[in-house]
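Batch manifest, entry 17 of 40.
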Amino acid sequence: MSIAGAKSSGTAVTQVDVFTDEPYTGNPAGVCILDHSRDDIWMSRVAREMACPNTAFVQSRPDGDGLDLRWFTGGGIEVDLCGHATLATAHVLYERKVLSEHQPARFYTRSGVLTAWRRAGDGIEMDFPLEIASPSEPPPALLAGLGAEPVWVGRNRLDYVVEVASQDVLRSLKPDLNTLARIETRGLVVTASAAAPQLSRYDYVLRFFGPRVGIPEDMVTGTAHCALAPYWRDRFADGRTSFTAFQASPRGGLVSVRIEGDRVMIGGKAVTVLRGELLA
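Output type: structure tokens
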């Protein structure tokens, strides 16, 4: 697969709002299509310039088998896994017709091979690994910085995961981000069951705080569901494996979640809000 020629005179860059079909809501991501390799310092600087929570850098592999994909936060820090910027990248590749409508995107990343594909009339779905959080003793900075009493605390290789008592508690959180930044983790996933799932469009709610990697509060976090899907599967009594989640951030966003074996399918819509070129 080649994406050479997807640019014109400069390096193509696109900003996409993810997990939404309405511009200026959901989670913004930058997508930078590379026609040749760039070093880490350059990518870090571009991510800072884009000032999105994450910017994805995608490049054709020399053997033609898929694409190399990396993610850098708005603070210029490379992360191991990013859901919304992966979905944004697939969206751009389909929109620019680098991929045909029925062709899956195959990404080689620091978290293994990830795939994404179009769902007819319903956005893009991604195949991600489960990242089950094991019960963990909360560090003092978590208890001091969260601003609410946890119901449950766990950790996986990416984040701490915290359940709080209710959706109202979750929405009212005003954490001390300077304190949370002392915790050696990518971020803090905070979740609660939906207040009235039979009346709402979603089963559980969440917020994500990542001050240590330059993301004070993420607007919609795809990778959080790698942990939350198995967590809520075990918490709900009906044995369900498919969910709709709502991220109760200032911009908000809906995510579809479905467990298949040791993988989780994370889906949502996206809309392009900016196209341009990096000339320097």
